Amino acid sequence: MSSYKLVTFESADEPRAGMVVNDRVVDIAALTGRSAYGSMLGVLADWPAADAMLRKAAASSSQTGGMPLAQVKLMAPIPHPGAIYCAGANYTDHALEMSKLHNRPVEPDPHTQGLKPWHFIKVSHAVAAGGDTINITAASKTMDWEVELAAVIGKPAKNVSIEKALDYVAGYTIANDLSARDMGRRPHISDTSPFKADWVAHKNFDGSCPMGPWIVPAADIGNPHDLAMKLWVNDVIKQDSNSGQMIFNINEQISHLSTRITLHPGDVILTGTPAGVGAARKEFLKAGDTVKLWIDKIGTLTNTMA
Hints:
306 residues; alpha+beta; Fumarylacetoacetate hydrolase, domain 2; seven-stranded mixed β-sheet; 8 helices; 19% helix
């Protein structure tokens, strides 16, 4: 089975869907003759058929067209996803460190309490590309990092079973769930008030969701629950874990979300972050910092803060 990666690249100041084969970027619409494949959302809307077509093209020994990857400006693989669902408190090691930070007792496995995954939402306009400079100082004085494995939906999913849930994933990419920690609780509101939390300010600002550098098709990932994941700030490692530390796995997340709302091709699910976040270390990002994320079988995503 021939492998490839999905990218969105800049062409004449317009985003175009491309595939990367042998370090060359090929325009998918031009390759297939299908104008609907000009955007990544168009490719994902026809995912099973598009995947078969692209694998056949990747396997062709005559596939020598396109442009060298090094000469192409990559955008976020989906510049404007339909929806971005983000799993909260979903890694065993991260839940432990946050319990210690807030001096709370360690909670039992939520499965034993009959609980389901829970998610918050980032807006699609928050997406940034690898290489982009993110203006954090305008948003927060305590900006935090979070490396996350992101699952990209490739088929409409409604009330899907846990066993079949991964069949609806087109591929995986890397995301940084940048978090404005000092904006998560509204000032002058009682700590006991149900209206104390402000998830919009905490998780949404321009550039708060760097994503990329590409989507690796699910078939080339294999088991998404055994991927090493790391994050560095200025080349100092901060997070070093494995996707196997998830509390609710990706199957459970997709199945549960699909009971509430139909998931559509191009929707993205950020599946949680492991231990090593800045809040637990009492360290936060500052202007000039470079943040590098790496996930096994996917690659590296890098951004500079300003």
